[in-house]
Automatic annotation (TrEMBL):
Organism: Acinetobacter amyesii
Top-rank taxon, per record: Bacteria
PANTHER family: ABC TRANSPORTER SUBSTRATE-BINDING PROTEIN, ALIPHATIC SULFONATES-BINDING PROTEIN-RELATED
Signal peptide: 1-25
Protein's name in the database: Putative aliphatic sulfonates-binding protein
Family: Belongs to the bacterial solute-binding protein SsuA/TauA family.
Record bears the keyword Transport: yes
Keyword entries, A-Z: Signal, Transport
Record has Signal as a keyword: yes
CDD domains linked to this entry: PBP2_SsuA_like_3
Protein's job: Part of a binding-protein-dependent transport system for aliphatic sulfonates. Putative binding protein.
Amino acid sequence: MAKLTTKKVLLSSIISLVFTGGLSACDSKNTDKTNTNSTSAKAETVRIAIGTQDTTINCATGGLLIRELDLLDKYLPKDGEYKNVKYDIQWKNFTSGAPLTSEMVADRLDIGAMADFPAVNNLVAFQKAGKQSLFLNPLSGSTTGSGNAIVVPTESKVNSIAELKGQTISVPFASTAHGLLLRVAKEQGWELDKDIKIIAQAPEVAGPALKSNKIAAHADFVPFGELFAYQGIARKIYDGSQANAPTFHGSIVTKDYAEKHPEVIKAYLQATIEADQLLQKEPEKYSQLIADKTGIPAEVVYLFHGPLGLQTRDLTWKPEYRQATQTAVDTLKILGKNDGKIDVNQFISEQYIKDAFSASKFDYTKSLANYGKSPLIAKDALTGEPIQTFKHVTQIWVKGEKQVRSYETAEHAFQDLKKIQQAGQQTRVVYSQDFQSDIKLLSNLAWFATNQTGQIQAFLLKDDATKFAQTHSGKVYDFKAVQQLVK
């Protein structure tokens, strides 16, 4: 099997690239080989050329993990009509969906991973070329929209969307984040170019613009809202879940290829299922692997892929993801990217993922009905008791420890945090769950409020914390101050 070893993109490099340039795609060194795409009894070669988006970390189970763990070969058919077939597996990494789509249309790739908006552009590009692509399955997403985010410079005085009226906001054009920003503007009653100015900026350009305060805000997709916040150059003031607009990334295939090699597609999707299972069972281990290969810090990867994460790894075609695809069609029509005459039900092909679930002995119908996040099954690291409720879960990743410590309450976590600090240990990150939206937060950037009994709640937005405190006779604290409440 031809296997690409992707170049590591060190964290220092990604920060440098965010500030000075672009994240470079690391293409496979393999060259395309003549491929008859025949599965006769003769010894022939079947190409499997897969385009990944490694730094878009919620594509990991459809690309990076399959590649790095050699999962695809495990499921490829090797008997019957495939007995004498040789597989030419090629991997190419991209930083966005547009160049990946170009490679697919040019028949240099067979399978790719991208978000709902780029996926619709993929469909349109194929149609213009007289071809067709199929949307195989979601990989990771949020039925409420979490993952897309709007951030402001760290020192900005802005704490809410309403305060951005009259300002300039940048966004990667025609992306899922662009769709979110347009939706937010509409909800605020803003008129484009009058009440708000939107400019096109890729994340690698927006990073230094935020740091130098050249823009008031930036809207972006996974993982940049959280990455910029983790790096200390921005604060998240709006999470996509507030707009309740579903978003996801998924796998796409050339229709002709899928119809010619359905067993290969089933094998690819079975590998995706296993990658998903592995990530759920050992999120710290595989978050670190993803970090090692992409330069996205493991702490940010875990924020998405760990238990109770920002997004849910979900391989099923929930109605919300179908709607997200239709929303992408409608929004991109407004932006002049298509004529709106697109039947998403012909684009979405559910049977392939159903077949893969069956072959892997998983119940697709049961998974389709499951809206839960990746579950947290753990004991409170302070009390040793099983965690039963999850509204106030707080987690601490201690430097040098393989597993994240979990606590049922913020109070338990902050008590243990004092002990950790007193022992001279360092923490990599502390996570909280937003009391209102239940999204996972970086605690050092969160706001906290108490109720009349002194119980601590975490919030993404200061306004939400303030409203809660006023309603429940409590007070508002930042991360440093709230720790002092616990003795």
